[in-house]
Design goal:
Chain lengths: 75, 367, 348
Amino acid sequence: MCLAVPGRVISIEGDDPLTRQGRVDFGGVIKSVNLAYVPEVKPEDYILVHVGFAITVLDPREAERVFEYLETLQQ
Amino acid sequence: MKYRDEYRTADAARGYANAIARITTRPWTLMEVCGGQTNAIMRFGIDQLLPKEISLIHGPGCPVCVTPIDYIDKALDIAGTPGVILCTFGDMLRVPGTKSDLAAARAGGADVRVVYSPLEALAVARDHPGNEVVFFAVGFETTAPANAMTVYQADREGLVNFSVLVSQVLVPPAICALLDRPGNRIHGFLAAGHVCTITGYAEYEPIARQHRVPIVVTGFEPLDILEGVYRCIHQLERGESIVENQYSRAVRRPGNQLAQQVMESVFQIVPRHWRGMGEITASGLGVSPAYQTFDAEARFGAVISQDESQGECTSGAVLRGETRPDQCPAFGTRCTPEHPLGVTMVSEEGACAAYYRYRRQVRRPVE
Amino acid sequence: MNEDSEQHCPLSSEGRELVKMAHGGGGRATARLLDSLFRPAFDNPWLERQHDGAVLDMPGAMAFTTDSFVVRPLFFPGSDIGAMAVHGTVNDIAMCGAEPQYLSAGFILEEGLPLATLRRVVDSMAAAARETGVRIVTGDLKVVERGKADGLYINTAGVGRVVANHPIEPGQVRPGDRLLLSGDIGRHGIAVMAAREKLDLQSAIESDCASIAPPVMALLNEGIAIRCLRDLTRGGLASALVEVAETAGLAARIQEADIPVREDISAVCELLGLDPLHVANEGRFMAVVAPEDVDRAIDILRRHSVSEAAVDIGLFLEGSAGLVTAQSVIGGSRVVDMLSGEQLPRIC
């Protein structure tokens, strides 16, 4: 359920919190995404996008954990 | 693509598979709740890397599959009303109602439009002030805030020709319903990561405690799923049952509170009928009284519940995780994606369709 | 968008003129359109004879094929319906192991189509035909009422001289034969979808629409033991492969990691929930060759720009007819199926 794809925020347009849009880069393809639900987002952040809405901002530090955890398992 | 390719590497996948094999001492059955995870498991062959003691069963996590036939019939009814434009996600087009589906209705002349985002449905309403525009809003908690936003904005803009037919469902009540069933054999859950980006996972903590079942909030890439399985087995082997968050790059414990607020103001919690599982208390969302004028049921009449007869189809048992798709006698012979007997074969994300696409061995349908 | 066509337009008013029912009536208006637009663009002795058909002198075996082209929008990044109508049929002839030579072109025009648009399509066909070395030697034109067609539809049929000295078809495929893919997949389908759907995508994705005859002729001329050729159009690599395996009565196995998919194509597929193996191409083909010829065949393919990224992606083997399995990037395996139903963006 719920296809959500990671993309990089290039720029943010609009002041209205409900309709704030971001230009988001998905592997070289750029699409407008509604940023209403991620008020904290800033350019260069990665977000997860579902049906045209950003649903969360990805945490780069936490993103490494799956590899670090595997390392601890292999020691 | 960053945050995708690095979670699909063969070496790390093998590393996790080995770690899982090392700690597994007896048979365990895990359910991945989300159809997206089912799809990833089949598409990448993740289950083939696991020791034979571990069975993965596929949960009811496909909003398309659990949408009751009454709602499809209502959508067909609305689409057939002169002057109506019905907008829906591509997933819903081939789901069979009692007599027809939306693809057939479109072929027959109904104005049925596929949208990628619910905001497109809103744009259609703006562009066609002379038509009634109805958005068929299905989904779990991941999609609910986006669907809620259309109503919120329509209200703000004073759009009078827009309404939503809502068949939204909630995951935690379904997990409880599965655990409460007699003969339940699920030892642990991989919870749906994208749902939890919105809801967080505090709500899962009492479920894990009361039912003594580990719940691991899990992402959708192969390494995410393998780590989710590892964490679940690790708990089971040690007799633990807590909620862990494997998908911490995307999910925080409180979830997305802003999204929750919009969702809670536009929608209210209602009892909901799930295909294959019957009615589950407080498991769905309906339009809240404050936004009643945007409820398509208020404009076009309420959805009428009907008896759900599945004939030969065993999708109810599949949705409850009681049988595997390939154990059904009709699977791949009398039931294929071209001639589906039930929803789990229709939806791209249904467990039967995923099995058919990625796992069957015999091709030729029996005529 | 019509600057080009307006410059060499013989009728000063053509830039604004629309197709009328009379243009398809077979009378003066039809004749004027043929004289001013089609004949000069396609320019060859057969059309100059202005006869009911073309008389061709073709000794030996020949391949014959036809295809119809309906695409919306008519012009999309990297190509258009005109170039597609030529390359599509040229490619089908090449897939029979034949050198494409002559085409026919049938047009169904919608009343109200700007003549400038038609000219642009016809010029694009003429350019594609010149580049491919085929002649458009006969044709037809009909006009239907406004609202009855998406601007225009084109049918082309074509013939070519068979170069292969052995049959090239699925029935020739044997266990152990290797499967070569001529390049990265999914560009055409995604380019058209991005131009059509209200997806609001900005991308550099262009259709791969091109003639694949040159590398095929080179394979044949250099004596590669080709068992079967198939161009990967609608339904994508997956559908073509399953079809060939079914007809051959064999199974096939491919390595997903070896199949080139550009990052932007793969990103759009993820966004819309599509499998790149199901997405349409217009300039890609697969070649099934004897195992001992693989290296040589790849060398030859890589000399041609249209197949410069050719790769070996798998093989055919004994097993259930049509059962195609792919080894995934993490080492599991899955069944590859034909596309079922239409491709729609989905949320889950």
